[in-house]
Amino acid sequence: MNLLHLTLTEQAVFVLAALVLFTSFALLAQARLLAAVHAFAWQGALVAAATALMAAAGGESHLYLSAALTLGLKAILIPWMLHRLIRRLALERHVESMTHPALVTMAGAAIVIFCYWVVLPIARLELAATRNILAISLSVVLLGLLMMVARRQAVSQVIGFMSMENGLFLAAVAATSGMPLVVELGVAFDVLVAAVLFGVFFLQIRDSIDSLDVDRLNRLTETELEAAEQEGER
Amino acid sequence: MSAASWLLALLQALLFIAAAPLLAAWVKRVKSRLQNRRGPALLQPYRDLRKLFAKESVVAHTASPLFRAAPYVVFAATCLAAALIPLVAAQLPTAAVADVIVLVGLLGLARFFLALAGMDVGTAFGGMGSSREMLVSGLAEPALLLAVFTLAMSAHTTNLASVIDYVGRADFALRPSFMFAFGAMLLVAVAETGRVPVDNPATHLELTMIHEAMILEYSGRHLALMEWAAQLKLMIYGVLVANVFFPWGIATELTPAALGMGLLAVTAKLALLGIALALSETVLAKMRLFRAPLYLNVAFLLALLGLLSHVILEVGA
Fold first, then answer.
1. Long-range contacts of range B298-301, CB-CB < 8 Å, 24 or more positions apart?
2. Among A11, A12, A111, A133, which residue carries the largest CB count within 10 Å?
3. C-alpha distance from A143 to closest chain B C-alpha (Å)
4. Residue B88: what pLDDT?
């Protein structure tokens, strides 16, 4: 399978898929929340553009609808909601202190190699010409997971979760030219509802522990109170 | 290879070395214009070099012979690297004798002696500059090599002329790997030539300087050689970016018309690159030194993604 045997549209899809992978790494390394939301919006827009191009290449009109849905939801609506939430929580200037950012990035690169190795037998099947993108989309899923593992800030964990969904969508579109429209609509609204619910959760978490650092959920409040009291006694 | 092509290669190398100060002056002039200043004339670096060559060179009494030898080694290694790069014509005998890895090695040799010379006299500034230079270059070199390997994997060769030939001849294709390699190359070029986000070439009165700190003890002809070598390095990276990624117009046959066309094309490309560099230097502020590893981490990541996307997307199963 050589790049030169593909049409220009398919090559453009490959470029977009590679850019989606790059935005995943940008999300992984981005310490500022607002910049991470912007990177997430760009990822959604790139996935939508790739879907639209695949629709043009394969002549499947229902893919245009999913592209529009992705653009509207993941590139505009959800980033806008996250944006508003961050402003409401007064986290615009929040910079997350990451432990070992370079190590996380290298782990991400290892994940990409692993995904390539896993997908290799699938890519040998004669699916669509765009099947090579499967490895990329699987990496986007696992990179989102890695982001959820590596981050302690609740908002960035949610962004990681949403970017996992981007990867799944890209995989579905690349391998089998999209899911049935009913499924797609269902998933899209699931994500939307999840975004709303997460917003409520953030407010709850902040009310109860006065921070969005989820590591603090591991500790029992009573022990902290006791520690504070002992501090006071001294 | 005939004598004529060797002569042409020699002429090309001399042209490369002679044109290097002009590129630096061009960048400086465009930058001045962007900042509403008039800026020095385009021939100013040549006047500076002539002045410095005429002056006596003062050497600290603690300096070892290495301090005196370093400017010559640095300049010679950089000139040799410049001679290997196809500037106007691709298929010259000099390009066939060495590949990209040798090129990176020559630049590494120059940097090694530069850093040694910085530490030789024993001033605080020199040692600081050397340690910073090594920090930056130690992180930039893997990214550069990976970007080069990405190109080499597509072209199936590490020879620069063959890579240029391959990129120039291949049918038009959108290659994600080239895109990433190009980004990585740009970031590395900016870091290696000591331009703004990493180092500021316009000052030697800052605690944060890198390159200027190392050559602070030099004067006279030694300083002239060091500065010329730095200008050459800028030109080397400029030509690498311009000719490897956009090889349009480079002469593939040795006829006068093709060579003239190649000269015109490379001049236009370098002028555009100079404008882009001046623009980015005007827009960006210098980073803190401890942000430089993050910056170079991005370059490395881009190069790695280029390599991976070549394997995953372009070769396929």
1. B298/A29, B298/B187, B299/B140, B299/B143, B299/B183, B299/B184, B299/B187, B299/B188, B299/B191, B300/B139, B300/B142, B300/B143, B300/B146, B300/B184, B301/A25, B301/A29, B301/A105, B301/A109
2. A133
3. 14
4. 87
Here the ipTM equals 0.85
Q: What is the pLDDT of residues B119-162, one digit of tens each?
A: 998 888 899 999 999 999 999 999 999 998 998 888 888 888 88
Cα–Cα distance between A122 and B223 in angstroms, integer? 61
Query: Angle at the Cα of B225 (from B224 to B229), degrees rounded to 5?
Result: 115
Give, to the nearest 10 degrees, the angle between helix B65-84 and helix B220-240. Answer: 30
Query: Which pLDDT belongs to residue A102?
Result: 82
Burial A175-211 (b: 16+ CB within 10 A, else e): bebbbeeeebeebbeebeebbeebbeebeebeeeeee
Q: Select the residue of A3, A22, A123 nearest B305 (Cβ to Cβ).
A: A22
Nearest Cα residue to B16 out of B267, B194, B297: B267
Categorize the per-residue pLDDT at A227 as very low, low, confident or very high, splitting at 50, 70 and 90: low
Which has the closest alpha carbon to B187: B132, B131, B130, B141? Answer: B141
Name residue B192's amino acid. E
Residue B216 has pLDDT above 80, yes or no: yes
- Helices (DSSP H) in A30-132: which residue ranges? 33-58, 62-70, 78-88, 101-124
Q: Once rounded to an integer, what is the mean pLDDT over residues B155-175?
A: 83
Of B164, B114, B180, B107, residue with least CA distance to B141: B107
* pLDDT score for A3: 64
The larger pLDDT score, comparing residue B251 to residue A209, is at B251
- Mean of per-residue pLDDT scores for chain A: 83
B170 contact partners, CB below 8 Å, separation of at least 6: A4
Which pLDDT score is estimated for B317? 42
H-assigned helices in chain B = 3-34, 44-54, 65-84, 93-97, 100-120, 124-155, 160-169, 176-192, 211-214, 220-240, 256-283, 292-309
- Report residue A233's pLDDT band, with 50, 70 and 90 as the boundaries: low
Between helix B160-169 and helix B124-155 the angle, nearest 10°, is: 50
Contacts of B177 in chain A (CB under 8 A): 18
DSSP state of A231: H
The predicted pLDDT at position A89 comes to 82
The residue of chain A with its CA nearest to that of B308 is A113
> pTM here?
0.88
Q: A162 near A146, Cβ under 8 Å?
A: no
CA distance B34 to chain A (A): 28
| Start-to-end Cα distance in chain A | 73
- Best interface-test mutation with B: which of A22, A130, A142 has the largest number of B CBs within 10 A? A22
